[in-house]
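Teaching soon. Invent one.


***
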Amino acid sequence: MAKTPGSGRKKGTPNKATQNARDTLARLKLDPLEEMIKIYLGEILFEQAVEIQKKDGKKEFLMMPACEQTRIQCLRECLKRQHPELRAVEITGEDGPLEIVIRTTKSNGAAK
């Protein structure tokens, strides 16, 4: 069955799941990248159980910055968005991969 020209979603139009996610973030006025940066900088605190000797044996909860591992993970995620990973590219000619030859010269101009 052939595709009718001009049918389907136009290039660059997000699918329903992507659009729903974007709409939800906009409605909540939330920028995930900004939040990850805040976590990395230690501006967002998390409730963490801290062992404190108490007579009743309970743990006390304190608000603390994210652990170093979480902060580094947030930084990695931010970097992925700023500098996407590049794909390996192989340049080929009619007879297969191209061969690159580099020649150096001596100071008198003779080829090595």
Q: What stands out?
A: The longest helix spans residues 68-82. The CA atoms of residues 31 and 45 lie 17 Å apart. The mean pLDDT is 77.
